[in-house]
Amino acid sequence: MLILGVESSCDETGIALYDSEAGLLSHALHSQVAMHAEYGGVVPELASRDHIRRVVPLLREALGRAGKSLDDIDAVAYTRGPGLSGALLVGCAFAEALALAIDKPTMPVHHLEGHLLSPLLSSDPPTFPFVALLVSGGHTQLMKVTGVGEYELLGETLDDAAGEAFDKSAKLLGLPYPGGALLSKLAETGTPGVYELPRPMLHSGDLNFSFSGLKTAVLTLVREQGEGLGDTFKAHAARAFQEAIVEVLVKKSLKAMKQTGLKQLVVAGGVGANKQLRNTLNDEARRKRFRVYYPELEFCTDNGAMIALAGCLRLQAGTPAKEAGAFAVQPRWPLMEMSVSGR
Ligand code: KG4
Ligand code: ZN
Q1: Greatest CA separation found in the chain?
Q2: Pairing with 26, which of 133, 194, 245, 284 sits 20 to 30 Å away (CA)?
Q3: Is there a contact between 127 and 120 (Cβ–Cβ < 8 Å)?
Q4: Does the beta carbon of 177 sit less than 6 angstroms from any atom of ligand 1?
């Protein structure tokens, strides 16, 4: 079974071909980062227009690389939500129209389910059940994953997402968009302990997070500096922020491992690319004798491969494919609605 995957929920257009037997055959990606950088953030209207421009050439690229033609595709999976409605509509309309033209069904996919299952694309994948730490630009959740569509929410952020906190703090430090990855690079040059920032909800006793206070603490630190932030200050402040957020993410993940008794932790979403988070989790995993799995770096942020994979796994798990044609996107869509337990 050959599945075409289409991702267009935010600022990346991704197309991929996933074969249920052979695995990922090809994927093609265009990031709009350079285009949005000029505006300091994602401009939804520009994002939608760029998806329109990119999607057909990317499809040709993915087909060419895999040595496949449209006739070989058995179903078209695409991101139905959550995300920017205009951006989602491009991928959704494209996928439904293509499927209609080649007379094949579609499989609308939840973007976060794509992230959640993306470590299964690696050559050494985890097996069910596992605990998942989902840390993206819009979401921060700890979940117990027993199978495809079998999710139990263990904890989540009460306000900002981890990636959002990275991006907002980066902006406060005067870093250009997209700030998260740049802040983490800068943090590598800073010294821990020069500044101390709060670890929100570290001792809350549950598995929930809160990051808006941490962002405010960065704002206060920046204000105390007055006019013009020096490079040394920025590096130390970035380090202080990263130390704080990584400690909270790691401690809560350890608590989730203890609470569930599971031996595998999967880290997914853009913040999963963070080196300090990876190093700290790897050290803890060695000490506590569990394994941590990450998606390949290229599949940490948005891509078509994880959507094709999620679509394929859904079909294999018995979720009925949809007849191509009519469609709707779902810009707001809690992941737990995808779980058989419904919460
Ligand atoms: O999963 P993703 O591509 O998009 C969403 O679905 O939200 O994640 C994007 C987020 C952004 O907030 C970005 O700043 C963050 O991931 N990110 C990072 C790093 N690379 C990307 N955060 C911390 N360290 C990084 N190296
Ligand atoms: Zn994403």
Answers
A1: 63
A2: 133
A3: no
A4: no
Say if residues 130 and 255 touch (Cβ distance below 8 Å): no
Q: Tell which residue, 54, 112, 100, has the closest CA to residue 326.
A: 100
pLDDT of residue 342: 55
Ligand 1 atom with minimal separation from the 302 CA: 3
Closest residue by Cα to residue 321 from 105, 109, 114: 105
Residue 168 CB partners (closer than 8 Å, separation 6+): 160, 179, 215
Return the closest-CA partner of residue 246 out of 175, 179, 176, 188: 188
Tell me which residue has its CA closest to atom 3 in ligand 1: 301
273 lines ligand 1 (CB under 6 A): yes
Residue 341: pLDDT above 80?
no
- Report d(CA 271, CA 342) in Å as an integer: 26
pLDDT digits (tens, 9 = 90+) for 53-109: 999 999 999 999 999 999 999 999 999 999 999 999 999 999 999 999 999 999 999
Put simply, whether the predicted model's pTM sits higher than 0.85 gets the answer yes
Q: Whose CA is nearest to atom 18 of ligand 1?
A: 271
Tokens of 280: 């700290």
- Record the tokens describing residue 261, joined without a space: 């008794």
* Residue 200 to residue 185: CA distance in whole angstroms: 23
Whole-angstrom distance, CA of residue 251 vs CA of residue 243: 12
